[in-house]
Amino acid sequence: MTRPGEVLEPPAFRSEPARRAVAIADRFGARRSARGPAEFRSDAERAWWLRRMLEELGTHCEDSPQLSDLRGFLIASPRGLEAVVASHLDDAERLRLYAHFFAHVLVGDADGAIAVCLEYADGRAQRDRRSPQALKQEGMADAVAAAMLHGRLERTPRYLYYRDEPVRTPGLRPGLRRRAGAVLHRISLALFRRSRRYQRLRTWSVTTLVVNRVQDVLAA
User: Fold this and answer.
1) pLDDT higher than 50, residue 88
2) Spatial separation of the C-alpha atoms in residues 111 and 64, rounded to whole Å
3) Which among 130, 127, 126, 102 has a CA at the least distance from the CA of 115?
4) Dihedral in degrees, nearest 10, Cα atoms 51, 14, 156, 72
5) Which residue has the higher pLDDT, 23 or 212?
6) What is the pLDDT at residue 98?
7) CB 5: neighbour CB atoms within 10 A?
8) Which of 77-91, 95-109, 160-174 has the lowest average pLDDT?
9) How far is CA 71 from CA 64, 66, 83, 97, 120, in A?
């Protein structure tokens, strides 16, 4: 709700990966209208579309028949980012893996660096020697990938995708409310980066209701 003299700009995306993550969630989610894009008919179509999204962001994608211990991996190379997926994966596994890789691109872009992502086949995982930063990115990527696949980005912090544009607001109180909202968004993102427990908490329906209610109050 706006007030006389108040100018609200559309929310700006933090980055191109963020914009595409929102597009993915909109296509996969239940919020599509009857006039919206046609639903995908299969996991194969969804996986193909996610792979195309990655490629349009500059990630080189390929299948490999040589992967046995790994389902796939995402690494940085002289050519840029490379995503390699085992050829034997079925469509559902391929979909989940591409969503996970896309989430790593988004999270890594927000963090300023993309960690190496190795996805082991069942029973082939080795001792985890990744850095604490890489483990945090892995947790965030898990949560973001699940939110995208279910079309429920509200289960993740808003500031992963959007940045607030300056708002010309007459009066002190509305301006303070909007600053308070920005602070809460930053705290939410910081907790989401560090805490698996908070990531799980964000998946609860009651958490979504509370977050939406607080946003409505601060924006009123």
Assistant:
1) yes
2) 29
3) 130
4) 30
5) 23
6) 95
7) 9
8) 160-174
9) 10, 10, 11, 8, 5
Higher-scoring residue by pLDDT: 210, 115: 210
The residues, any chain, with a CB within 8 Å of residue 114's CB and separated by 6 or more, are 74, 76, 81, 104, 105, 107, 108, 137
Is the pTM higher than 0.90? The answer reads: no
How far apart (Å, rounded) are the C-alpha atoms in residues 113 and 22?
Answer: 21
In the predicted model, is pLDDT for residue 188 greater than 80?
Answer: yes
Q: Which residue has the tokens 């483990």?
A: 135
| Ordered DSSP codes for 157-186 | -GGGTEEPPP-B-SSHHHHHHHHHHHHHHH
Query: Roughly what angle, to the nearest 10 degrees, separates helices 43-56 and 16-28?
Result: 170
Nearest CA to 157 out of 108, 111, 191, 180 is that of 191
Q: CA neighbours within 13 Å on the CB side: how many for 117?
A: 29
Q: Output the pLDDT for position 136.
A: 80
Q: Quick one: tokens of 115?
A: 């960690």
Q: Are strands 70-77 and 60-64 parallel, antiparallel or unpaired?
A: unpaired
Confidence of residue 163 (pLDDT cuts 50, 70, 90): confident
- Strand-pairing partners, residue 50, are none
